[in-house]
Amino acid sequence: MPRPRPTRSLWLGFVFAGVFGIRTAHAEPAPAGTSPAVTARAAPLPAAPPAESSTPALAGLTMLVTGGYGASTHEVRGMGLAPYGAMFGLDAGFTFPFGLRLGAYGGFSLGRTTDERRDPIVRRAFDFKADTSSVNAGLAVGWDVPVYCLVLRYGLGLGVTSMKWDFGGVDADDVRYGDAKNPNVGFHFVPSAELLWPHGRFIGGVGFDYLVHVNGTIPSAFVGKALVGVKL
Amino acid sequence: MSARRLASLGCALSTLWAAQAQAEPVAPATPAAPPAATPAPAGDLQSPEQASTRNSAYTLPRGMWAFNVGGLGIGSGDAVATLGAAYGIGAGLQAEVNVAHMSVGLFNIATAWQFVDTRYFDLGAKVGFWYGHGAWYWIAEEYAKDLVAKLDVISIPVELVASAPLTRWFQLDLTVVYAYGEIFGVGSESNIFTDAQIGVRQFALRPGARLFVTNRTALELSTKLPVSTVIPFDKVDDVSVPFKHTWSFEAGLRSRLAPGLFGSLRLHYGSNVDAMYGARLYPAFELEYRL
Q1: Closest chain A residue to B258 measured between Cα atoms?
Q2: 3-state helix/strand/coil string of chain B
Q3: Could you list the residue range(s) of the whole structural domain that residue B191 is in?
């Protein structure tokens, strides 16, 4: 049973999210009125629970520019297609005062070229290059949760990805990709998490998306990203 | 002063400033008004009403319902998709069912019992029952579907779970689980049920840690470390699966989005994730409403 290992670029995605990632402070004294003990389990413990503001600071309309790096998390028909790589996009949405956010997103991924090898049963093995890139867009629902002066944003997007592919002079049928159109279009959904820092009208932050593709001929991907934008 | 404390102080100051700027004028005092009974303030994620029951010793308080919906899960109870209900019966007992699994030929019910409840240490037990009918597992791809088409699977996981809320911002969990599995029918020993560790006989440890970042958000980490995994496919010579193909790890965030409403997002890593979804790293999400 083949057990593909995460590519180096997947770890790059992690590093991108991790280097700028969550560095939350905690264990501040709880303000008065925070959680009296309900049972023995919630009875006073050595340190008081941390607390935070109850109102998200991002209520209203926000526009964000995103940039990041995406890595495919699995192979497609024996090929390590990489239609993500460096990614740029836009993210706009409205957050209600109670935290619910409705938005839309779109992005372009430069992708990159990967070296592939095919070893058919009845013919000689051959090498080829697979060049892929993609664009994606969709609608998202999310929820903003305050974390001290930051905002943790959960999201779930539903949209469409269009992946362009080019195998050079190799016939797509010879690499078992002949049934896919070019560009190859499919639905995706995107669980995501972002940690945002609102400062006046300015918003900055980092986060990750996981593009889960319904179309099995487009690889799913982990995307680490940075966001910069404004609150309108 | 440490950088962390300085950052917190900065956050607190900016919050205070914002609150002051938005403060409404103080209403004139009404001396005749008796002190009204104010509603209990919201608890934190370690309080019984809000504690996570996933991979922990805790169960729902008596009379509390929990309804959840989610997708792409891994592991007992929430594999593939979740559309479930749980109920706190009382005396630490809880019953739960996931009806989403029925749509893909899986049926599972579970019960949990928290029988030790102290300030620093809690203990619970969980028992579940799974039945999988391969012919109804339609979401697999063609080849994988063929492999399970003539198989039926039974799994009975039994868990002993210890949780230790050492401070108000840190908790350790340890689960000892034995899953008894049985596979009936004709097919390959390597199929989506066994590769996803449904239907195997497995003894495993699952240590975990929870960092309560605020009173409504927690970072949750856990790893499953199987000591022994056997596929009971061939009764004459059971197939043992090595540790490197069975361990898994998950990291997630869980937050109280609103009173009674909880959201969580996890990333799973492991061979069982690969078997289920075709990638070693995969996300899972869940929304839970308690009332």
Answers
A1: A98
A2: CCHHHHHHHHHHHHHHHHHHHHCCCCCCCCCCCCCCCCCCCCCCCCCCCCCCCCCCCCCCCCCCEEEEEEECCCCCCCCCEEEEEEEEEECCEEEEEEHHHHHHCEEEEEEEEEEEECCCCEEEEEEEEEEEEHHHCCCCCHHHHHHHCCEEEEEEEEEEEEEEEEECCEEEEEEEEEEEEEEEECCCCCCHHHHCCCCCEEEEEEEEEEEEEECCEEEEEEEEEEEEEEECCCCCCCEECCHHHCCEEEEEEEEEEECCEEEEEEEEEEHHHHHHHCCCEEEEEEEEEEC
A3: 44-290
